[in-house]
Design brief:
The complex is a heterotrimer of chains A (109), B (113) and C (243). Chain A is built from 4 helices and no strands. Chain A has 109 residues and is mostly helical. Chain A has one domain (2-108): Fumarate reductase/succinate dehydrogenase, transmembrane subunit (3 helical TM bundles of succinate and fumarate reductases, Up-down Bundle), CATH 1.20.1300.10. With 113 residues, chain B is mostly helical. Chain B has 4 helices and no strands. The mean pLDDT of chain B is 85. Classes of the chains: A mainly alpha (109), B mainly alpha (113), C alpha+beta (243).
């Protein structure tokens, strides 16, 4: 399992490298002169490409972050074992659900 | 006396990478919840954005943008070492990462209204 | 201002994992190494001091200990470089090892991990039939040769933060040795070896702090060997799950 976790984290990292670059560039561009809901929603509402991109972004984050945290917790705290893995799986699921909910929110608003 | 391993540039890189990752992992659920206020309509989303348009929040956002840029640039360095079999001049690479992060954070703070 | 002090103030760890530093004064001498200093203390001042050395010329790695916070070979460490003008030296046993006494540490677990990483050669059916032909310029042999000179001194292991954080982490030396064998075309233990380094405490636990590479007296770069192991591990895992 460990090699596959490692692979999943590195693969999601590669996906995120692209997604984060786009996201950062978009933020830097969009944030000029302040940011309103109207400006954000004007871009995201009904935009399918936006939805697909950010859904993929959320999925990659939901894979990447918990696996990274797993190393931190195992190395810096005494917590390890199946209980930790379950907790992190729950965290992954929460990120996925909250993230997709957020993407949907600005898509459908 | 600080142990020698903690004075190495590679350790600083790993520490920054780890701390920025943890910060992002904590921030993200909050970010998702904030965006989801749009579920209650554009007005609700707008009032949230207005309420959080304070200098303190802008500074925190700047820090998060810096954390994101830090985590990504140091992560790319790792991917290069692990998969492209690159042997690096560590200090030079880390200086490049720091410069990128600084530029991105500055661009955000200067532009953020 | 004034010339370097004529007497070194040397703080030496005494005891086991618990203990204290004991201070000694040792005359500063020309071309002195830290090993010279320890030896002078033990012979002339305190015969109860325990430390290790053997070749005293930078070939065996037995004299490794922490000098002013940094793991190094004391026979290859000049006092003039390590102590500085104030003449202060602090000598400690290697970190991440159990202390036997004073400056001597228990190396058993370190070498056990070599075995756990499958860091030993496994001959196949062809062994003994004829000489194995291994051209030195092949990529595999080059990769193995770059990492093969390890003499097991333990400095990398002492410097490694992940070893300090995870007692089971196999460590840079064991993983580096495993990498040389992954690249040994005569070896028959590839599957078992990659399985051995693919656990939670295997190669994936290396976070590229690169202290091992910084401090290795043989200029080996375990970081890059471990990066190679990560790639080999993934290739092996992908083949096995037939993705």
């Amino acid at each position: 399992m460990v090699p596959l976790l490692f692979l999943a984290q590195r693969l999601s990292a590669a996906v995120l490298a692209l997604a984060v670059t786009v996201h950062l560039a978009t933020i830097l561009y969009a944030v000029r002169g302040g940011l309103t809901a109207g400006e954000i929603l004007g871009r995201t509402h009904g935009n399918r490409a936006f939805f697909a991109f950010y859904a993929l972004f959320v999925a990659a984050v939901a894979v990447h972050a918990p696996i990274g945290l797993r190393n931190v917790v195992r190395e810096w705290t005494p917590w390890r074992g199946p209980a930790l893995d379950v907790a992190l799986a729950v965290f992954a699921l929460s990120l996925l659900v909250l993230g997709l909910r957020a993407v949907f929110a600005v898509y459908a608003a | 006396m600080m142990r020698a391993s903690h004075t190495q540039p590679g350790f600083l890189a790993a520490l920054l990478h780890r701390l920025s990752g943890v910060a992002l992992a904590i921030f993200l659920p909050l970010h998702f919840l904030a965006l989801a206020t749009a579920l209650d309509g554009a007005a609700a989303f707008d009032s949230f954005l207005t309420a959080t348009n304070t200098p303190f929040v802008k500074l925190t956002e700047g820090a998060l943008v810096a954390a994101l840029a830090t985590h990504m640039s140091l992560g790319l360095r790792l991917l290069a070492i692990e998969f492209l079999n690159i042997r690096e001049r560590t200090v030079a690479v880390l200086s490049g990462c720091a410069a990128t992060v600084f530029a991105v954070a500055l661009a955000f703070l200067l532009n953020a209204g | 201002m004034s010339a370097a002090r004529d007497e070194l103030r040397v703080e030496v760890w005494r005891g086991t994992d618990s203990g204290a530093f004991q201070a000694f004064g040792v005359p500063r001498r020309l071309n002195q190494t830290v090993l010279d200093v320890v030896t002078e203390i033990q012979r002339d001042q305190d015969p109860t001091l325990s430390y290790r050395f053997a070749c005293r010329v930078g070939m065996c790695g037995s004299c490794a200990m922490v000098v002013n916070g940094r793991p190094r070979w004391t026979c290859r460490t000049r006092v003039s470089e390590a102590a500085g003008p104030d003449g202060a030296l602090r000598l400690e046993p290697l970190r991440n090892f159990t202390v036997v006494k004073d400056l001597a540490v228990e190396m058993t677990r370190f070498f056990d991990k070599w075995e756990e990483a499958h860091g030993y050669f496994e001959p196949d059916a062809r062994a003994g039939q004829d000489f194995a032909v291994v051209p030195p310029a092949t990529p595999e042999r080059r990769a193995a040769d770059a990492a093969i000179e390890c003499i097991g001194c333990g400095i990398c292991y002492s410097a490694c933060d992940v070893v300090a954080w995870d007692k089971d982490y196999l460590g840079p030396a064991a993983l580096n040795r495993a990498w040389t064998l992954v690249n040994d075309v005569r070896d028959a233990g590839h599957d078992a070896r990659l399985a051995a380094v693919s656990g939670d405490s295997g190669c994936q636990a290396c976070h590229t702090h690169m202290s091992c590479t910084s401090f290795c007296p043989k200029a080996i770069a375990p970081t890059y060997s471990i990066a190679g192991l990560k790639r080999a591990m993934l290739g092996h895992a992908l083949k096995r799950s037939r993705i």
